[in-house]
Recover the amino acids of this structure.
């Protein structure tokens, strides 16, 4: 069942607004599978031919609705070791306002299909470095027809409607940076 986030504070850069993530609802994705989603914040990642697959993913996402992008970040693979070095990831957050509401379950399937269209291979041999052409994770969703009167301030009102996916929280540093950047551009 939904619960309030209890840790982390997301500070907005160059503004006096202080957004406290503790005011946002956190849900396990399974609890909202059938609910119609109108907006979603995604984390995209690629450690193999990112210059090819990130633009393809962004193009395909744009067919679903209005897309706003964070800066892309180059990050080392946190599972790499000196014995098993791994390629860096290119990561980017995406805010997608859907043309038509779609259930979370349908969105998840759409993103899995998109990963497959980018030649994502999930099977690797033991000790083989995984080449991830495209990884799409849902960080936050906004459901259709949510009424919330926590504040008349448009930033707080629009942010209080968001639901954070519990399986993705706490966000990784690049995800938090991407969400922060999207908030600054009026998520």
């Amino acid at each position: 069942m939904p619960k309030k986030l209890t840790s982390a504070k997301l500070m907005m850069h160059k503004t006096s607004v202080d957004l406290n993530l503790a005011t946002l609802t956190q849900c396990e994705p399974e609890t909202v599978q059938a609910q119609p989603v109108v907006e979603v914040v995604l984390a995209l990642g690629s450690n193999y031919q990112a210059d090819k697959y990130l633009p393809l993913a962004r193009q395909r996402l744009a067919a679903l609705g209005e897309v706003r992008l964070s800066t892309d970040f180059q990050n080392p693979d946190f599972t790499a070791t000196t014995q098993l070095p791994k390629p860096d990831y290119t990561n980017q957050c995406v805010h997608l306002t859907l043309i038509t509401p779609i259930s979370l379950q349908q969105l998840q399937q759409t993103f899995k299909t998109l990963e497959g269209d980018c030649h994502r291979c999930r099977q690797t041999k033991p000790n083989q470095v995984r080449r991830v052409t495209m990884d799409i994770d849902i960080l936050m969703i906004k459901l259709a027809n949510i009424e919330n009167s926590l504040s008349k301030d448009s930033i707080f009102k629009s942010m209080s409607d968001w639901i954070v996916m519990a399986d993705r929280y706490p966000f990784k540093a690049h995800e938090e940076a991407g969400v922060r950047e999207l908030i600054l551009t009026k998520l």
Observations:
- Strands lie at 3-4, 10-11, 18-19, 25-27, 36-46, 65-69, 73-75, 89-103, 135-143, 162-165.
- The CA atoms of residues 149 and 166 lie 23 Å apart.
